[in-house]
């Protein structure tokens, strides 16, 4: 192999990085992505500062946020030179963040700078940040109300779903009577039960909790019963041979063996619960993110609507990250098998 061939090969030689169990391949010629990521947000900040605006908006909260974001990216890039784990994460996400920065810059130009997209349906990012800055107290209170409602309904729905799933997956009689009920009720969206819930329960809060319980109960119960049913019978037969009783078979073999399926049901339940939460809070609630969206939409202030949606996305991402951490701890015996 000639010297020129070796140089070409060295330029295309892949760098293999692992991120959350995934194999990520990055070519050496693309190692500038973290720098381009920083440049893209410097560009966004430059667009916000130097290009004259056509819309009336307070740019200061937005520009402060962009400044802190740039400092954060620079800091992580510097730390990545000393820590391999940070380097893997930085290189894995750099292209995505770069693309987001370009999209934000284009959006700012089309809205705040050139006013090409019509208001109030297409507010600029700066207007969204202005809404968050102006209504931060209301948004904090609304987020707290929504989290209280979500956690209460999610906890009750998960417990009932686990109990129902174990009964269906373990006992034939329970399967005979309950599984048709799950199939009949589970396919109906929880929001379709709003009129019934408002009639049965004395307050809108209890009706909202009931709707979230209902939408979480079905996927958890179904996936729990499916997970128990998929456990190989040889495990139970071996335990019975050693003298294991029914309680041991259920709590030491059936439920632990069904944990991967149970977590799949929990993830599905959380996703549906968020959608149900927002819809249910639009009817009769006095606080919450769903109430805030409905209130802002009534005034045609879509910047506030998008602000609440961003907060919802952040809260949902945090909750899912916590659930993934819990799953990794509970299923540590499956390390290397989960993706």
TrEMBL record:
Q: Which UniProt keywords apply?
A: Cell membrane, Membrane, Transmembrane, Transmembrane helix, Transport
Name of the protein this chain belongs to? NitT/TauT family transport system permease protein
Tell me the domain of life.
Answer: Bacteria
Taking the first listed entry, what is the main subcellular location of this protein, grouped into a coarse class? membrane
Domain named ABC transmembrane type-1: residues:
143-327
Record InterPro entries: MetI-like, MetI-like_sf
Q: Name one GO biological process term.
A: transmembrane transport
The record's annotation in Pfam families points to: BPD_transp_1
Origin organism is: Clostridium acidisoli DSM 12555
Single GO cellular component term: plasma membrane
């Amino acid at each position: 192999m000639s010297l020129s061939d070796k140089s070409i090969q060295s330029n295309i030689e892949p760098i293999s990085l692992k991120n959350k169990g995934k194999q990520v391949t990055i070519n050496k010629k693309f190692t500038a992505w973290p720098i381009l990521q920083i440049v893209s947000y410097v560009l966004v900040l430059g667009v916000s500062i130097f290009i004259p605006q056509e819309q009336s908006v307070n740019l200061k909260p937005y520009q402060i946020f962009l400044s802190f974001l740039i400092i954060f990216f620079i800091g992580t890039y510097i730390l990545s030179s000393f820590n391999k784990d940070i380097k893997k994460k930085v290189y894995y996400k750099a292209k995505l963040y770069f693309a987001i920065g370009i999209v934000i810059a284009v959006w700012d130009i089309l809205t705040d700078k050139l006013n090409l997209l019509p208001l109030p349906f297409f507010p600029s990012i700066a207007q969204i940040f202005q809404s968050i800055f102006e209504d931060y107290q209301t948004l904090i209170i609304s987020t707290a109300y929504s989290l209280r409602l979500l956690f209460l309904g999610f906890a009750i729905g998960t417990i009932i779903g686990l109990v129902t799933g174990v009964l269906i997956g373990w006992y034939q009689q329970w399967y005979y009577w309950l599984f048709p009920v799950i199939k009949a009720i589970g396919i109906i969206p929880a929001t379709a039960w709003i009129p019934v819930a408002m009639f049965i329960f004395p307050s809108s809060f209890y009706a909202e909790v009931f709707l979230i319980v209902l939408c979480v109960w079905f996927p958890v119960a179904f996936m729990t019963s499916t997970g128990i049913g998929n456990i190989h019978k040889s495990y139970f037969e071996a335990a019975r041979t050693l003298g294991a009783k029914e309680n041991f078979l259920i709590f030491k073999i059936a439920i632990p063996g069904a944990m991967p399926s149970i977590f799949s049901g929990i993830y599905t339940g959380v996703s549906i619960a968020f959608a149900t939460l927002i819809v249910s809070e639009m009817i009769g609630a006095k606080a919450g993110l769903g109430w805030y969206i409905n209130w802002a939409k009534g005034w045609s202030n879509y910047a506030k609507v998008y602000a609440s949606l961003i907060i919802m996305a952040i809260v949902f991402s945090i909750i899912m990250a916590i659930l993934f951490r819990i799953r990794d701890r509970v299923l540590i015996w499956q390390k290397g098998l989960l993706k």
